[in-house]
Amino acid sequence: MGRNKKGDSDGVREFFWVLHLGFDLALWLAVISVLSVGAALLAAHYWWHADPVAGVEHLLGYYLAQTTDPALARTCADGAYWSWFGWTGIDAAAREFALGLPASSAMGNIYRHTLFTNLYQPLTVAMMAMKLFGVRVAMLAMAAPAFGMALAAFLADGLAGRHIRREDGANESATRYHRAKRWFTFGMIPLTAIIWLVAPVRIPLVGLFLPVTGFCALLIWNMAKYYKKYV
Fold first, then answer.
1. Most distant CA atoms of the chain, gap in Å
2. pTM, to two decimals
3. H runs (alpha helix) in the chain
4. Residue 10 Cα distances to 1, 4, 18, 216, angstroms
5. How far apart are CA 112 and CA 227, in angstroms?
6. SS (H, E, C) 156-184
7. Of 29, 23, 16, which is closest to residue 133 (Cα–Cα)?
8. To 10 degrees, what angle do helices 70-81 and 117-167 make?
9. What are phi and psi of 170, to 5 degrees?
C-alpha cells in the first residue's frame, strides 16, 4: 500500500513537473530581484551618493544599449517594475506625489506618509533597479539560444568521444562526470546568472557570455564523454 502511494506521488510529480519548474523559477527570480534592488541601494549609498538616481539611470541606459531587441527588453523592464510597484499602487501614488497632487486613495495616503516623505530617493532608485533587473533578464533570455546551441554541439562531440572510448575498451569515469556535473549545475550556471542579474556594475554581455559558454561547454563535453550508464 505504501509503495502504491509512493508511485502515485511520483506520477503526480512527473505530471506537474512543468508547473513545479515554473514555480521554482518564479521564486528564484523573486529572490534575485530582492538581491538586485538591495545591491543597487548599496551602490547608491556608497558609489552614486552624489546623484543616486542618475547613477542607476546611467547603468540602465548602458544595458539597454547592449540589447539586440530593445522592445523586448523594455517590455521585460515594465513587467519587472509592475511586479513590485504597479499592482501595489506605489507607482500611481508616486506619480501623484511627484506632481504635487493629493492622494487619490487611502493606500496612496499611507504610501505618502511612510515612503515618499523620507524615502523618496531610495524608492526611486529601487524603481529604476527593478527596470534594470527586467532588462538583464531579457538579455539573459536572448542569449540562451546561442548558449544552448554551443552546449548541444559539445554534447554531441562528447557522446561521440564516449562511443570511441567504449569501442577502445576504455573505462568511464564517474568521478570526472560528477565533478563536471556539480560545477555545471551548482557552480557556473547559477553563479553567473546571479552575478549578471545582481551586480550594480557595467558588465559587457559578450565579455561574460563567451568565457562562461566555453567553460560550460567543456563541462558538458566531460559529462557526456565520461557518462557511465549506457544510452
1. 80
2. 0.82
3. 2-15, 17-46, 52-66, 70-81, 90-99, 106-111, 117-167, 174-183, 189-198, 205-225
4. 14, 10, 14, 31
5. 60
6. HHHHHHHHHHHHCCCCCCHHHHHHHHHHH
7. 29
8. 120
9. -80, 155
Pairs from 108-117 (Cβ < 8 Å, separation ≥ 24): 115/90
- 11, pLDDT greater than 60: no
Q: How confident is the model at residue 12 (pLDDT cuts 50, 70, 90)?
A: low
Span 142-165, pLDDT tens digits:
988 988 898 888 888 888 877 776
CA distance 14 to 27: 20
For helices 205-225 and 117-167, give the axis angle rounded to 10 degrees.
40
- 214 has a pLDDT exceeding 70: yes
Q: At what angle do helices 17-46 and 189-198 cross, to 10 degrees?
A: 40
Q: For the residues 169-197, what does the mean pLDDT come to?
A: 75
Instruction: Supply the pLDDT for residue 120.
Output: 84
Q: What is the 3-state secondary structure (H, E, C) of 68-90?
A: CCHHHHHHHHHHHHHHHHHCCCH
| Whether 194 contacts 32, CB under 8 Å | yes
